[in-house]
Amino acid sequence: MTQSVTLQDSHSATDHAPIRRPWRWHIAVFLAPALLVYSALMIIPLAETLRLSLFSSKDQVISFVGLQNFITLFGDPRWSESFWRALWNNTYFFLIHMLVQNPIGIALAALLSLPRLRWRSFYRTAFFMPTMLSFVIVGFVWKLILSPLWGVAPSILAAIGLKSLFGPWLGQEATALTALSLISVWQYIGIPMMLIYAALLSIPDEVIEAAECDGVTGLAQFWKIKLPLVLPAIGLVSILTFVGNFNAFDLIYVSQGALAGPQFSTDILGTFLYRTFFGYQLQLGDPHMGATIATVMFFIILAVVSFYLLVVQRRIRRYQF
Amino acid sequence: MKQAPILRMRRVAVHTVLGAYTLVAILPVLLIIMNSFKDRKSIFAQPLMPPDASSFSLIGYETVMRQGDFLGYFQNSLIVTVGSIFFILLFGAMAAFALTEYRFRGNIFLFLFLALGVMVPIRLGTVGILEMMAKSGLVNTLTALILVYTAQGLPLAVFVLSEFMRTVSDDLKNAGRIDGLSEYVVFFRLVLPVVRPAMATVAIFSMIPIWNDLWFPLILAPSESTKTITLGAQVFIGQFVTNWNAVLAALTLSITPVLILYVLFSRQLIRGITAGAVK
Fold first, then answer.
1. Which of A14, A271, B14, B192 would be a feasible disulfide site paired with A260, CB 3.0-4.6 Å?
2. Is A303 on the interface with B (CB under 8 A)?
3. Cβ–Cβ < 8 Å for A277, A287
4. More confident of the two residues A283 and A107
């Protein structure tokens, strides 16, 4: 079959000028499978989710309600309380990531990129290892370690003289979300570390040598020369973290259950969406309110990503070497 | 020469910090693996000690093997991951080739269309996906998972592979065309072998989130015969919360395959991340 089209195809493809040509079938053949799968399973369901959020069903009758679902979600006390709590918790979850993950990631990357460092690849491999594990594993591992029943955490803390600090962190309303954020940081620290490490390595030697000639060394060199040069990488890490955090679900579900206990104190948008969509305990699932929450999440992520691409990324100074 | 002691002190300080963080990263996992080989009494009495002759026990693994179908879960995960990666690479490479090799109307639009998928998580379409799978009778099949993960992985694969397709020499392709090869043969015989390293990087990257995902197995394929190892471990551990031996053994079983793969491929993976970031 391919034989018959060979000749005319090879003619048309060797010429790159955008002149009108007969329909080139092979382009369609190359593109079709990817576009088909992608549209059918990503774009159409996403559009369908947005559409469903404008409808409501009562007693098996589905009716168009416009933006009523959103008004309910933001304003009706039965929904809004959970929604705003989940949104705030999610923001807090993200802030902890930014405040803990980025500084530690930058510090580790800076140390790893020191010249003539021994065991570099061993450290790199070790630091990145938790990132490979699933949230299911990570959630349970930390649940066991922090469990007051097992007593591993207290005895490790005792070894460094901090035993009095220990508490059942995952079980207390005041500390559960912070503890989970830190567990998530522990798991994902490898990604910011690697991206910033790569950015540090790509700084040309001449720049560093020039700095050394001017007497800028050590920490001053880090703050004044290297950090400004890796800002684009830090920006990228931040936006990746944001998208990851605002559709997080697994870790909370595994360690605290769908109810995101204690007392919903660890409820984030992902778990809220899951509970709403599928129902829990006595409450039935509601696909329309579920779609509404997913739509809100979609616009939050879209807004922040666009803001990053259109405003932040353009302002960050990039240096071409 | 005078600087030597200061330099040495600095080096010691650097290694102390790096070593300390290595412990933070590795110790939790090490603790789980270590304790899974101990009997119940010594898990609680001396959690930080490695198993020795008197405390060694495989009771946890026996429970896991009796109660959970971990081999089945493992097989499901393998089918889903390998199947998805195969389609991501094949379809992704074909699309990347079409988008970079030929100029045609809609080219830029298609890139933007795919870019949406890089930025927006597929999870947000779950409501629509489940509805569609229910209509087409694909709920509780591995096919549903493979389809979803293929769609999830395609956008990034197209972007990364396009970057590499651009570097394939035109002379090579044109030589093939002059020899009378069709565009399909040019792609499969000449271009694909050249971009194989890039495809390996894409494969490793796409693999991790697929193997580790809990959301879609939980929603699309929660039945006993289609559980993946991530979901299987989650359900199993949930049922055996109080049986510490079984929980630790189940965790170790789900960590091990990932760890082995990681140790084997960590070099390539890390090179992939660092090379991508330099661009």
1. A271
2. no
3. yes
4. A107
Count of A–B CB contacts within 8 Å?
284
| Smallest Cα distance from B128 to chain A, Å | 4
Residue B154: which domain range? Answer: 74-206
In a domain, B151, yes or no: yes
Tell me: do B33 and B137 sit in the same domain. no
Q: Which of B206, B234, B260 is the last residue of a domain?
A: B206
> Helices B142-165 and B70-101: crossing angle, nearest 10°?
40
Say whether B182 and A10 touch across the interface (CB within 8 A): yes
Is the CB of A121 less than 8 angstroms away from the CB of B155?
no
Domains of chain B: total: 2
> By CA distance, what is A110's nearest residue in B?
B14
Mean pLDDT of chain B: 87
What's the pLDDT at B2? 52
- Give pLDDT, residue A19: 56
Place B226 in a pLDDT band, splitting at 50, 70 and 90. very high
CA of A41: how far to CAs of A262, B119, B175, in Å? 35, 15, 38
Q: Which residue has the tokens 């709403």?
A: A276
Give the pLDDT confidence score for residue B228 in this predicted structure: 92
Point out the domain boundary residue: B206, B234, B259.
B206
The segment with the largest mean pLDDT, out of A236-250, B76-90, B125-139, B244-258, is B76-90
Distance of CA B83 to the CA centre of its chain: 13
The rounded distance, in Å, linking the Cα atoms of A171 and A266 is 10
Residue B154 belongs to some domain of the structure:
yes
Mark whether B81 and B202 lie in a shared domain.
yes
ipTM exceeding the 0.90 mark: no
Nearest CA in chain A to B274: A198
B36/B124 same-domain check: no
Contacts 24+ apart (CB under 8 A), B162-170: B162/B96, B162/B99, B162/B100, B163/B198, B163/B279, B164/B195, B164/B198, B165/B93, B165/B96, B165/B97, B165/B100, B165/B101, B165/B191, B165/B195, B166/B100, B168/B194, B168/B195
Picking from A101-115, B2-16, B157-171, which range would have the lowest pLDDT averaged per residue?
B2-16
Q: Closest approach of chain A CAs to the CA of B113, in angstroms? A: 9
Spans of all domains in chain A: 77-315
Task: Indicate if B34 and B94 belong to the same structural domain.
Answer: no
Most A CBs within 10 Å, among B23, B29, B138, B183, to test the A interface: B183
Is residue B219 one of the residues assigned to a domain? no
Q: What is the C-alpha to C-alpha distance for residues B221 and B21, in angstroms, rounded to an integer?
A: 38
B101 and B190 belong to one structural domain: yes
For residues B71-82, average pLDDT: 92
Residue B153: is its pLDDT beyond 90? yes
- The CATH code of the domain that includes B78 is 1.10.3720.10
Instruction: List the single residue in A2, A33, A132 with the smallest CB-CB distance to B91.
Output: A33
User: B159: distance to nearest CA of chain A, Å?
Assistant: 12
The listed CATH number (3.40.930.10, 1.20.1560.10, 3.30.750.24, 1.10.3720.10) that belongs to domain A77-315: 1.10.3720.10
- pLDDT averaged over every residue in chain A: 84
Whether residue B240 is contained in a domain is answered as: no
